[in-house]
């Protein structure tokens, strides 16, 4: 029992014997004896205090979630983030050290660590915000708890006692509309019937009848506990007196609360996050190796020694040079990490959510968009997802010309909209007397109503009765009658016409013993009739006559009885819920009944008299109803099969009904053997662990009926253990734990409870299974596009690493500084990477099997391709740096316009020894509006003077990456087959990136921050000439890849033919 906010120390006192007492399998007397209470007196006040000390308050536990600081620290439990954090700290320390010298470069050095810190802070804020919303399902669960209860204590009824003060043994009175405050055993019914709406807990689509009679078995599912009412459910009919058996966390809803909390503690990372973490770990190792190699190559520049007598002596260490090469190592780390990747992924996923919203799939958690793309199993609820959750009449059986002939009419339509579908082969405006009587009983012996809310038709009352009213509307009116008195657009105009023809004067409520409902109606002529509907077998037992199609009444003989029962069996075998219709004109003492003042009224006060009143009936026909499958679902199931996605139906409904629906929608074939494909939840749980896994690995669809929350969780857990990516749908409170545990929890937007929605990753706006399949297709498309921009960004980073590595290996001055690399990774690369998220989807995207969650983002061939591209990027950026220093012209392009001095390659690679060169002088040169002079220190030509060469290197890097984004349009397709204009957003993004690069080049303040200068026209020509070959190189590599792929396919086909 839940202790609520009370001391944990009290737990030792609890001895909840109630947890093991099966009240549903015990008589009322045994239950009262167990709890030492009587229904008339209730508990004593002193006993209540004692029990509250043992069991605590009747409320759900408050789980204390992680603190804000714990959530913040969790955001740094990521390899890429940790690398960035180390790089930022080191950069800050180095910037602080350089800042002691003052000057512009000192200010510039602080930009890099501050930008990295800003990225990390934003990332942490977003992560904490998402985590903080994770436990809302538990709060929503508390909302459905009752706040007050009518309790009998010390022999007195307390009408509005706080429900949290209830203890096991309390006597509670329930009436229509009450929310049940705890799990309780019904002691006795005050009204003739009690019906409870418990769909949110069990998945049943209709209110269930309750009784005070015990059930035979102790081991029975929730649906079978007909003498129990459960916390959080609602009474929709009748009133009763109950005994509290479970409170707080021991109630069924309390168990669900625990399961949700447990599932939330074991949430796994999404497939993409796992891959990025693996990539980060590999990247860490690569960065470590490259940094070590760079230091080993350059150790000679900051650490020298002499050999004396064969031993190293006279060590000389240059702290300034050591710091310089340490900065290069930091630059390597910055270059290797795609800092813009988290932002681009978030943007792409956000765009994906908008596309999915257009297809009625509302994504609550961004990573779910990507996870949907690799879904391998969809575990779907039946009611409301695969079906409409709107009962519909599908077959009407009326009596024919003779007693042994029947007429059958098929009824179309799947909703409560009377205009949805019609009755096939119906005698419109020519209904015979038998059909008119069926319409009359359906309209008058009925308490349901239907209203229209925008485009939806909703019912108030029992779904079966609403379906009968819709049937009456489709039947129409008898010939010669119209409805001039009813306004245009009236939904139930035919039902209103029948109600105008006869007025109800008494109701014989439904009860479980006779399984029927009757009404006494007075016609306009003043005569009374009894109209009855109910279970066909029960009505036949109480019927003596049958009405033929012309209205004549004849004796119900054995032949006609057999004929009707055969029709019933055939309809029941198709999982139709059947209702029979009968009437009676000879009412004896009720022939003149007109209300409570009539002498016969006292007979109606005792429900035990109803069976005798409903005897000697005239049977007129029967109707088959069901919750019909949605029209779109059959094709959606076919699409799943083509896409390699298995569909498992997990429902609280009974086995026969669920099997019939599954055959109709294509989960099973009509002649398929379901022995190992259809099980109840209890049967599944009795299997061994290995047998369960063998069952779940079967090809094709599976069905689990009468499933409880623990069954759903076990199925999801085993599937995930087997490496499946599971999408789970649900709408009820009972679905919340499994929704939380699944890789993708999908709640229903219309019929779903708030608990289910809060526990889910995605909400279906239209509650339609086909929307899930559309969302999976969108998820696959988004993943393909994400792969495109991840490959693009990683290939760009490989190029940056190659550039810095070559710089260090050749010993030339640093060509790219960390703040420039950060700008390229975050800003310049961002728009093209985001635009790649708009690549059009492949036409056959839902014809391919789902990718495995452990599939590599980058194959060995793709990695080789980008290593080649990266090597070219390195050669191009370092090469143009060397060209500016050593060549006055290149490829016919004159570079001497700025007047800079040329040096030899040997001088450039040994620039650290400049101070020892005799007679070394450098002429001043111009760059934009700035003049550079080196009269005082010619060696500064390789530090301050490298600004133009650095600008050329940065511009080549930007240009190459823009051209490389065109290569990323398709993994293997040539630009000739997929031209740049196939994604106009990419062309726009390239323009934006070039525009941003021009901004930092030609705005003096920004140029100073990034340590660059404006370029001349000739220098831009050189940049484009050096950058463009990256397209040609990748085209050649793509061609080789296509040839290798086609030859491999041919070999497989040849091998297949040989076999």
Automatic annotation (TrEMBL):
Source organism: Canna indica (Indian-shot)
Database matches in PROSITE patterns: ATPASE_E1_E2 (PS00154)
Pfam families listed in its UniProt record: Cation_ATPase (PF13246), Cation_ATPase_C (PF00689), Cation_ATPase_N (PF00690), E1-E2_ATPase (PF00122), Hydrolase_3 (PF08282)
InterPro entries: ATPase_P-typ_cation-transptr_C, ATPase_P-typ_cation-transptr_N, ATPase_P-typ_cyto_dom_N, ATPase_P-typ_P_site, ATPase_P-typ_TM_dom_sf, ATPase_P-typ_transduc_dom_A_sf, ATPase_P-type_domA, HAD-like_sf
Primary location: membrane
Transmembrane domains' residue ranges: 79-97, 109-129, 282-303, 323-351, 789-812, 858-885, 985-1003, 1009-1032
Keywords: ATP-binding, Calcium, Calcium transport, Ion transport, Magnesium, Membrane, Metal-binding, Nucleotide-binding, Translocase, Transmembrane, Transmembrane helix, Transport
The protein's name: P-type Ca(2+) transporter
Alphabetical list of PANTHER family matching this protein: CALCIUM-TRANSPORTING ATPASE
Family from the record: Belongs to the cation transport ATPase (P-type) (TC 3.A.3) family. Type IIA subfamily.
Region (Disordered): 1-23
UniProt-listed NCBIfam families: ATPase_P-type
Residues of the Cation-transporting P-type ATPase N-terminal domain: 22-96
GO cellular component: membrane
SUPFAM superfamilies, per the entry: Calcium ATPase, transduction domain A, Calcium ATPase, transmembrane domain M, HAD-like, Metal cation-transporting ATPase, ATP-binding domain N
EC number of this enzyme: 7.2.2.10
Lipid bilayer topology: Multi-pass membrane protein
Biased composition (Basic and acidic residues): 1-16
GO MF, any single term: P-type calcium transporter activity
Locations listed in the record: Membrane
